[in-house]
Amino acid sequence: MHPRNLLAPLLLAAPLCAQVAPVSLPELLVYSPRIANQSPAGTFATPVSSLRFEPQVDVQARNLTEAQADVTIRGGIFENTGFKFGAVSVIDPQTGHYSADAAVAPAMLGAPQVLTGAEQAMATSASTVGAVAYGWRPVQTAGAVLLTAGTDGLNREEFYQGYVSEARILGQRLAADVAWAHSESNGTIPLGDSRFDRVNARLQLAGAHAQTDFFAGYQAKFFGWPNLYTPFNSAESENLQNFLVALNHRVDLGGGDFVEAGFYHRRNKDDYAFNRFAPLGPVHPFQHTTWVDGAAVAGRQEFGGLVLNYRGEVLADELRSTSLTYGHFHTRMQTKVSLVPEKSWTLADGAHLVVKAGASLDSSNHEGSAVSPVVEIARVQAADPLTRIYFSYASTSQVPSYTALNSNAAAGLFRGNSNLGREKSHNLEAGLSGTVDGWVGQAAVFYRQDANLVDWTFRRGVTARSANAVDLNTTGAELVVRRSWIGWDLVFGYTVLTKDPDYHGAIVDASFYALNYARHRLTAAIVMRVNNEIEVRMDNAARLQAANQLRALGGSDAIISSLSLTYRPAAWRRTTFTVQADNLWNSSFQEVPAVPAARRQLSASVAYAW
Predict the structure, then answer these.
(1) Distance between CA atoms of residues 71 and 48, nearest Å
(2) Residue 550 zone, left/alpha/beta (φ > 0; ψ -120 to 50; rest)
(3) Closest of 560, 584, 520 to residue 61, by C-alpha
(4) Which ranges of the chain have pLDDT less than 70?
(5) What is d(CA 603, CA 156) in angstroms, rounded to the nearest whole number?
(6) Helix or strand or coil: residue 557?
């Protein structure tokens, strides 16, 4: 099959071709190999779309997932989840609510990788619990266009075109791609309307072992949602404008060795309205703009039997705000340097014992510095059913956001604390991965201590939410298994968590984030290829939620599902028809406590690829 015939399914979450055995398809052909529906029903896909039902990630949305998504990993919160694009960690220093707002079309990215433990500690900055990493996808000569209509006045349009030229620069082929996307909707509840736009362009130089990408993207998002942040049933809205420029270069040296370097500039403009329909015009007490410049270099190289894993990153930011003016500073520089040597020995049974031991140094010109050790011991044997068994300890550190540091501590909707300090996390875990009877899987048990984690809390009689430091002990286990047959794909995930918080004597009646977690969460992604033309895809997440006094509606337990049916006529293989339902059972479960749930969304799409 020519790659261009797969582009429309890639863009729209339509199916992989039925006549090819699913186990033979490379993962780069889909946004994520571990979910069924790669794109949402209610708007165009963004990088966070592929995380909605990811087994290792819990996404807590306001309005659509693509409107605002708090991405959490292993019971962490949105603030301590990182995002990595190529070599660089892309952050939003105002608030982690906007960290997932990357103005990048998923068609330009590889499948997301969820990083935890020692891997996360070595590979990213400005995160403590976990991170989601994306690589830059090689450009192909192909294009696609999509039209969608749906309930609640939904309309959506997308266009993508990639082109690989015959030109060569320094022996590398020159390629480029562009993408444009638009959607608007009246929303699944009153005052939940949205309008999203995104435009991307990329130049690429690529060869057999190296790839350079220069990317520019702009995204504008407007959406309304009652009780978006406050409990007053006000007509709240967000108007976000995100601009991203990135340059990334990677060289694969063979044997797992590589060198990668990158730079980015990001601007995020946030205009929050407490009442967009106020008689004298919208009330806009919160307007913020942040700028971030980041650069990183990382690699893995062997020198005489000793492998060096290394990384260095610098992040410089600036905030301008109408309300975040009560802290000690509005510019900041962060640096992180990691060096983790690695040594391996061959055991008598042919397996390899791999030991990594090193440390990272995090520093900031305002919050001091911290040394974070990393140790991992693993037994690796490719021919064994259990291909990898490991034990690790990893320490990580990050600094609080400006919303926590610079909000007024005595008044307003958000009560900050300018004296909040550096957050630290210590993670101890053991795990394994392998293949048994055709099932490919991984499992881990972990214990994590978070010190001075910044949480937003509720106290009876105080309508505002307050930033409080919490020491939090989290114990958990996670399991992900996957299997493919000619007609089916199945992916199951299960996570269990318990937490023990200490708020240092602060009066806390409920937590919006740190204690908003599922004690048990089960995911199931199912793909059924009915024949060469029809495919059914279904994602499911069942959860038993920890009790939370802020969750007024929807109960503590929920089952959320997304279902799609795709038809690709044999006579028109470049045309794909898809109908899809998100929140199939119309659940009212509040993913963020006290914030109304998005209800069922139905849509129908037609796409054509060339």
Answers:
(1) 8
(2) alpha
(3) 560
(4) 1-30, 280-284, 553-554
(5) 10
(6) strand
Q: Which pLDDT tens digit goes with each residue over 542-577? A: 999 999 888 876 678 999 999 999 999 999 989 999
Note the Cα 304 to chain centre separation in Å.
37
Identify the three-state secondary structure at position 119: helix
Residue 407, class by beta-carbon neighbours within 10 Å (0-12 exposed, 13-18 middle, 19+ buried)? buried
Owner of token pair 């307007």: 287
Say which residues have a Cβ less than 8 Å from residue 491's Cβ, sequence separation at least 6.
33, 34, 35, 36, 55, 480, 481, 482, 523, 524, 525
Residue 449 tokens read as 């201590």
Report pTM: 0.93
pLDDT, one tens digit per residue, over 486-497 is: 999 999 999 999
Token pair of 96 as six digits = 């982690």
DSSP of 101-163: -----GGGB---EEEEHHHHHHH-SS-SSEEEEEPBPPP-SEEEEEEEEETTTEEEEEEEEEE
> DSSP string of 346-402?
E-TTS-EEEEEEEEEEEEETTTEEEEEEEEEEEEE-TTSSEEEEEEEEEEEEE---H
What are the chain's domains?
Answer: 3-228+238-609 (2.40.170.20)
Q: Is 408 helix (H, G, I), strand (E, B) or coil?
A: coil
**Nearest by Cα to 503 from 512, 511, 492, 493:** 511
Q: Which residue has the tokens 């029809």?
A: 534
Three-class SS of residue 12?
A: helix
- The dihedral through the CA atoms of 540, 544, 546, 547 has a sign that is positive
